[in-house]
Amino acid sequence: MNYSDLVICNNKARSQANDAKAEGNKHFGAGEYEEALSQYQIALQIASELESAEDICSACHSNRAVCFLKLGKYDETIKECSRALELNPSYVKALLRRGEAHEKLEHYDEAIADMEKAIELDPSNAQAKRSLFRLEPLAAEKKEKMKEEMLAKLKDLGNSVLGRFGMSVDNFKAVKDPNTGSYSLSFEK
Question: pTM for the full model?
């Protein structure tokens, strides 16, 4: 096969991959997410044989991600977005979709990181700004809840040990030294 035949073959394959992607877009628009996933997969298979097809592949991975998002398959959404971002690290749509999936899974810190990266790449992105505004209080609330749960578990553990001696963690008071920031414990009956 000579060079011009190779170019023609590559162009034909690129056209087939784009056609499959366009067919996937039609199915997606009709709410036929499983069918869209299949078409995007076909496009990916064709494009994987091509040189320099990162644009098609990253778009298909991102499109597969939004299908999974619509189907409530958030872990799959994250995987597809990550693949799209490996091919195109500045793909804002993939960051937004992955951030949305992280939010659904209550992975707020990861969602915030994706939205911050999206804003870094596109400072005028209103969706990322709105998401960040919504996510930051959710992340703080989750951290506070986790801290309270951890303290309750520690208290239960302490009480189970101290209970053998007829004591409770409530018998101990921690006082913070304002000068050093350290704590001292005192026992109270």
Answer: 0.74
Sequence-distant (≥ 6) Cβ neighbours of residue 178 within 8 angstroms: none
| Chain segment 52-73, per-residue pLDDT in tens | 889 999 999 999 999 999 999 9
User: Which residues pair with residue 183 across a beta bridge?
Assistant: 176
| Owning domain of residue 83 | 3-187
Q: Tokens 């690290």 sit at which residue?
A: 89
User: How many CB atoms are located within 10 Å of the residue 117 CB?
Assistant: 19
Contact 20, 39 (CB under 8 A): yes
Q: What's the structural domain count of the chain?
A: 1
- In this predicted model, what pLDDT tens digit does every residue of 133-177 receive, in sequence order? 999 878 888 888 888 788 778 777 777 777 777 777 777 777 788
In contact, 112 and 132? CB cutoff 8 Å: yes
In whole angstroms, how far apart are CA 165 and each of 2, 102, 160, 161, 188? 88, 46, 10, 8, 14
CATH number for position 165: 1.25.40.10
DSSP-assigned states of every residue in 34-103: HHHHHHHHHHHHHHTTSSS-HHHHHHHHHHHHHHHHHTT-HHHHHHHHHHHHHH-TT-HHHHHHHHHHHH
